[in-house]
Amino acid sequence: MKKIKKTILVIAIILITSFLFACISTPPNGPPNGGTDNGPPNGSTNGSGNGSDTILVQNITIDGENHQVVVGGAFQLSATVLPENATNRAIEWESQGNHIATVNASGYVTGVSVGEIEIVARSFCSRSIYDTIVIEVTELWDNPFYTEIDPLISAQELVDSMQVGWNLGNAFDSHSNNVGLTPWVGGAAATGVWSNPYDNLTVAQMEGAWIGGINHVTSRELIRAIREAGFDTIRIPVSWFKATDGPPYWNIRQDWMERVYEVVGWAAAEGMFIILNTHHEERVLPLSTYPVDSNSSLFTRRHGIDFSINFIQRIWTQIAERFINYNEKLIFAGLNEPRTRAAPGIPSPNEWNGGTAEERANLNRLNQYFVDIVRATGGNNRYRILMAPTHAASASVAALNGFIVPYDPINTVNKIIMSVHSYTPFNWAHGEPQGNVTPTYPGSNDIMWSLNGIQTRANALNVPVILGEWGSVHGDLDIREARLPQRRQHAYDYVRLAAQRGMLTVVWDDAGLNNTGGFGLINRSIREFTAMGRVVVDGIMEGVVHRMGTS
């Protein structure tokens, strides 16, 4: 008996020592909380790990507000640990009722049954340091957007019911140029080791990469502010390839998918129309094939069209299946500005001018595959309204004339929208390079000319149009003040003239608030429109009000 007691005592001492060592040591691979550490992406901390200067956790705050999730749905929680240089920032996640919602060691919550429950995030080493958040789990059909799509609602009827839109730009569509296969062997079956620097980032770090960090990521309050400003439509650009395991399967990270799902849900709760797309994917699926330097990064390489078809099939099957229950107010947009990108030493002279005949033909094939893939997932996706772009979403004659409406035999009414982007007049609104603009707005003639060309082609094809991107940059400081009333007039002209032609406008906002080439209208961290942004938005809303005029 004495031997057994002695053994138990030794084991207890070992366990206590191990726990104390863990609390004065930095985990070798960063905190085991699955991405709740807001420190460096490589998992490093500032603790010495020798116990002589142990810094204890003082505070834990779960990021965001209380959450709602449907039965079977899931999402990722994260938490901020202070001080940032605490020696051990590990968090333990706990559900106060696993029969309602579960949470794993990484903070990933899954709804189990209807009800409310608290989720706790507790310091691994200081048990008295914790935070809680309330999770409400609802039935699937409690979501007002989870209704059946009317098979007879047409794309034109839907567009006619939409008023004006705003882009959540540079958030989910951030990406890195340093993505590739090394060593690379080209063709449809490109091979090599997939290298992606985003693999080491949390969802919040990916979302905040281009907009100033995690303090600027999308909040429900931001979506509400956009809706209250008069926008009834939100376009959510998403770059998916950077959040996958690469070819050939392109499996999307679950935490990334659920974060997008969460933001779509916020927009749905505000009663908004939602456009969900793939953005910057042209970096991995250019539309032509020709030799390049084998040492170049993936986005400069030209794969065969089969490589691109596989990507479309894999990515859109996953997206369509996740969002299958949303009704017609959720629109899928297959591609953003599909084209063969120019790169150092690798020109693409027709990148923005309608492409080549080969590229336009390949794009029409991809648009067709997109429609077929979404329809094949069944349910509401059989009747969902879909957007397909011209080459590079260009309004050029070649791009418009080269666009073919995808065949959609399952539907007896047209369910396809033509997607076009037009920063008109370009030299004043956008400039090349971006921000290098002319100082004086030349009036609405260029806008009318561009819109008339788009309308002529759309009428011939019997499809509606959504102008998914447009806007005007801030410009240099020395012309910015004089430019501002012109930007208001431009916004008024653009929205009014487009609406008169039955087209929906979705203004581009890249969160760039002060830079010369920025399009930012609202400060996303405080959810307030800037002084410049307010002027532009006023012009937009005036254009909506006066859209019934003639020009």
In short:
With 551 residues, this protein is α/β, with parallel strands linked by helices. The protein has helices spanning 2-23, 155-161, 203-208, 220-228, 254-269, 305-322, 357-376, 397-402, 426-429, 445-461, 477-500, 531-545; strands at residues 59-62, 67-70, 74-76, 79-82, 91-95, 101-103, 108-111, 115-123, 130-138, 165-167, 180-185, 191-195, 233-236, 273-277, 330-333, 386-389, 416-421, 465-469, 504-507, 522-523, 528-529. The longest helix has 24 residues, at 477-500.
Would you kindly provide a written description of the structure presented here, covering whatever features stand out?
This protein has 551 residues and is of the alpha/beta class. It folds into two domains: 28-142, Immunoglobulin-like (Sandwich); 155-545, Alpha-Beta Barrel (TIM Barrel). The chain has helices at residues 2-23, 155-161, 203-208, 220-228, 254-269, 305-322, 357-376, 397-402, 426-429, 445-461, 477-500, 531-545, and strands spanning 59-62, 67-70, 74-76, 79-82, 91-95, 101-103, 108-111, 115-123, 130-138, 165-167, 180-185, 191-195, 233-236, 273-277, 330-333, 386-389, 416-421, 465-469, 504-507, 522-523, 528-529. It has an eight-stranded parallel barrel with strand order 10-13-14-15-16-17-18-19, surrounded by four helices. A hairpin with a 4-residue loop joins strand 20 (522-523) and strand 21. Helix 6 runs parallel beside helix 7 and helix 11 packs parallel to helix 12 (531-545). It is globular, with a radius of gyration of 26 Å. The chain starts with a helix and ends in a 6-residue tail after the last helix. Residues 26-51, 183-190 and 291-301 have low confidence and may be disordered.
